[in-house]
Amino acid sequence: MELPPFSEFLEEHRGTVYRFLMAAVGPHEADDCFQDTFVAALRAYPRLTDASRLDRWILRIASRKAIDHHRAAGRRAIPSDELPERPAVPNGQPEFDGDLRAAVSSLPPKQRVAVVHRHVLDRSYADVAEALGISEEAARANVYHGVKKLRELMA
Amino acid sequence: MNTKDLKKLGGGRESDRLAEVAASAVAAAAAEHGLLDVALGAFESPVGELLLAVTPRGLAYVAFEEEERDELLKRFSRLLSPRILEHAASTDEVRRQLDEYFAGERTSFELKLDRRLIRGIARDVLAATARVPFGRTTTYGALAERIGRPRASRAVGNALGSNPIPIVVPCHRVLRTGGDVGGYAGGPSRKRRLLTLEGSLPAARPR
């Protein structure tokens, strides 16, 4: 299978990647992670030998960026006893979304990314495993523990 | 909490809009990192909208609006690089010179050209074509002679028809012997239009 022009590839996958990042790193950081993801993809693009399942490939890169981003943000963060700050609500979404977002961002990065792949993008556990470079059981465990923690936080 | 609630965090349709904006910024970042191998830009001209393809080596392609964009991009991907993005800023210099040309303020282009899309005999033919000055014309036969293939005027015609950089490499200045304008990849009416602009054809042509 022939590699499509990058412009076509970008157009096809931009929506999914953005949705993933919106949920995984939040609205304030989604743009930066989006740029990082596609610039990294562009760098490696001509060397790709398998043009099938480019969706998996770009989401693997986006997952790495989302996790790296979380680590970098963690190093910058000022220690605090308080719960993660609620992000500003841009266009009057119900409070509930803000709480849920804060709860998601409090999850350990792997759990958070696993939960987003599974429940925001509806991907299979095999795809979640592939995106994170872990086994399918580990993917199931990450999603399971992530959702369990969210239920506790949102109870 | 229902896991269905999580879906909303993806941003829904709003994310599609934001993704489109974010995607348009990727090209600038790519250019900054030296990762943009083929930059695309559009130019509104008196002969219709042109699609320009510029690489780090120079201008590689000028397409008339009828050319199938998907097919073109596939060809660039195969023959130049798959790192293709729209980035008008990378085509600014070409657009500026085209503007001047169509305004009658420029008679020759000073642009670097990427000749990778020119193959075989077309290399010689188009190199000779590039030396036909503004306001002058030549013929297929004369061009064939100039490249040392006097009996190859048909091959010369084909090579001109395959010119990937029309207007800038002025294949419109090559006419059929006897004065008929002959064929043109962009159609004979565009050829007449360009020749008129250059004063090689009278402005109001009697029919």
Descriptors for this entry?
heterodimer, A: 155 residues, Butyryl-CoA Dehydrogenase, subunit A, domain 3, 70% helix, B: Double Stranded RNA Binding Domain, Arc Repressor Mutant, subunit A, 2 domains, four-stranded mixed β-sheet, 38% helix, elongated
Describe this protein's structure:
- The complex is a heterodimer of chains A (155) and B (207).
- Chain A has 155 residues and is mostly helical.
- Chain A has a single domain (6-84, 93-154), classed as Up-down Bundle (Butyryl-CoA Dehydrogenase, subunit A, domain 3).
- Chain A is built from 7 helices and no strands.
- Chain A has helices at 6-25, 30-44, 54-76, 95-105, 109-120, 125-132, 136-154.
- In chain A, helix 1 packs antiparallel against helix 2 (30-44) and helix 6 (125-132) packs across helix 7.
- Chain A is globular and about 50 Å long.
- Chain A starts with 5 loop residues before the first helix and ends with a helix.
- Chain B has 207 residues and is α/β, with parallel strands linked by helices.
- Chain B folds into 2 domains: 15-102, Double Stranded RNA Binding Domain (2-Layer Sandwich); 121-197, Orthogonal Bundle (Arc Repressor Mutant, subunit A).
- Chain B contains 7 helices and 6 strands, in the order αβββαβααβααβα.
- Chain B has helices at 12-32, 69-79, 92-102, 121-129, 140-146, 153-161, 188-197, and strands at residues 38-45, 48-55, 58-63, 84-86, 138-139, 174-175.
- In chain B, the strands form 2 sheets. Chain B has a 4-stranded mixed sheet. A two-stranded parallel sheet of chain B has the order 5-6.
- In chain B, strand 1 (38-45) and strand 2 form a beta hairpin.
- In chain B, helix 4 packs across helix 6 and helix 5 packs across helix 6 (153-161).
- Chain B is elongated, with a radius of gyration of 21 Å.
- The mean pLDDT of chain B is 94.
- The interface between A and B is large, with 43 and 38 residues.
